[in-house]
Amino acid sequence: MDMDLILDRIEGMVAPHIAIWDDPFRILITGIMSTRTKDEVTDRASLRLFCEYPTVQKLAKASPREIEKIIKPVGFYKNKSKDIVSTSRIIMTEHEGKVPTTMKKLLELPGVGRKVANIVLSEGVGKDGLAVDTHVQRISFRLGITNSEKPEETERILKRRIKRDRWNEVNSYFVEFGKKICKPVHPLCDICKLKEDCKYWRENEGSN
Q1: Helix/strand/coil percent split, the chain, to 5
Q2: pTM metric for this prediction
Q3: Cα angle, residue 6 at apex, residues 170 and 149 outer, rounded to 5°
Q4: Tens digit of pLDDT for each residue in 169-195?
Q5: Treating both helix axes as pointing N-terminal to C-terminal, what angle do 134-143 and 167-180 enclose, rounded to 10 degrees?
Q6: Which candidate, 138, 189, 143, 194, places its Cα nearest to that of 10?
Q7: Does the domain at residues 24-125 carry the CATH identifier 3.10.20.30?
């Protein structure tokens, strides 16, 4: 399967997902909130949060209880509130108030996994990153690109098969493609330009 062709076809079906923030710190904090939470809920919570605490300096001085009230109903909001405050304090005390720009250092921050770190690198720092969220994982599995259910393994497979200069395109296009066409339930296979290359379609719709 030609991954350049796959990306080109997806690009022909949907516009890329546009992140609500372009500042590395706000992308990081929004990423921490986004795990197991719908984008719409996360975006509204981040807007409320940054209206009250617009800078890393202010968030570092906040209490988790204060943050809980603002970001609810984000999933696991109590734990994430602690991670947000702890991460802000670490950035202030260990990184001179600036978001780390390496995978290693980002993964040391509370609440940050590879997905969030890759989003920060690709969307906030301008480095090459390939973030595997639920949309990327689902679409990769359905297309037959990966048989693994582990995002880390899917990331490795995609990085081997996609040119480095296109890594940053994957999440932004797959997210919108996953929301509008390759939905978790009742995917719109009839209008999908990838169905002839899709393992899911061949095994389900294509066999009817």
Answers
A1: 65, 0, 35
A2: 0.92
A3: 60
A4: 999 999 999 999 999 999 999 999 999
A5: 90
A6: 194
A7: no
